[in-house]
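Hi U.,

Before I forget, here's the chain from the pilot set. I'm dumping it here mostly so it's searchable later in email.
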Amino acid sequence: MNLEAKRTTELEELLIDAEADDDVVQHTPALVTRPWLLLLGLILVALNLRPALSSMAPLLSEVSASLGLSAAKAGLLTTLPVLCLGLFAPTAPILARRFGAERVVLGILLTLAVGIILRSSLGEVGLFAGSLIAGASIGIIGVLLPGIVKRDFAKQAGTMTGVYTMALCLGAALAAGATVPLSQYFSDRWAIGLGFWVFPALLAALLWLPQVGQKQGAHQAAYRVKGLLRDPLAWQVTLYMGLQSSLAYIVFGWLPSILIGRGLSATQAGLALSGSIIVQLVSSLAAPWLATRGKDQRLAIVVVMLLTLGGLFGCLYAPLDGLWGWAILLGLGQGGTFSLALTLIVLRSRDAHVAANLSSMAQGIGYTLASMGPFAVGLVHDWTGSWAAIGWIFAVIGVGAIVAGLGAGRARYVQVTSEKV
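Structure:
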């Protein structure tokens, strides 16, 4: 069995670990007495990791007009949650060691609910404060949840990876498509459309509550990984993660506004975003499988990035008659870019401990970098008064992602090792 084939067989077992910090992953299995309840809780928690991000985009123009926000402030509003994904992710293992992962997930679901309520009830101050709290909450849960999945469903890791990804995409798509109709149903009150998403968060917290009382396995060993920040390949993986994420959060934050500016209604724009996200379900599952069948992942990275750029430029410049075709193309590309970013973390690591630390680096630094994209779109639109100029932002980020991906996609390992401490 060659090296890449061997790594392919390990991929399903390691992929979830690659999203979690070593200190979060339990090294002995927990005693799960009701796995169906845990599975339901995990799905509901995952469903809540994107609505706070994708629900704002279809209403951004209306919210900005209502509160008198400039395009730069609107750009900051789309940037804050993404920035928090990177800034607060490193706090997850600290909180988990102190309180336990299950308790932290429950508590952070409640802070997410608080953020959603603030965002929709206290004007401009609440809008920004709530967005910050919601982004921080999502960043913390996003690190903890995969480790719990790996621990409690180790033998079904591959299947649960697919379920986890699908729940993320489904939550994003539901919020993107339903927020505007909800606000219109309640007399065009955007605050109700945004605030509605507190109910899924509270429901997830309620169904997660039984997990807090479960007896958890103890840590048996701790591992330390040195030298990752000095490794060029690790930086290439991180840059690819950050740059492709930047395009993804530009789409989450700005695509509906772009389409509204081109003549669509808010409902039509939200549905276009929702449809594009739903399509990601296909490529997010298929792209890693196809990419690991070759000698490396460089061709796959170039293909999905070109699909993404083609979809973005089509949505920005092509006639609206063909919009749904471009939205589907965009979804196929972005589903592949995200899942390949997670896959690269695994394939470029010699073991799960290196993968976990590489993932922490890629998320922490990558998402911080990604937050600059939505902010840049807001600034450029504010300066030019037009959406046409942001095509240059797409091009620069996309080319950068391809260059980083060509380095990250080579069949090599990061030159670091893990050691027991």
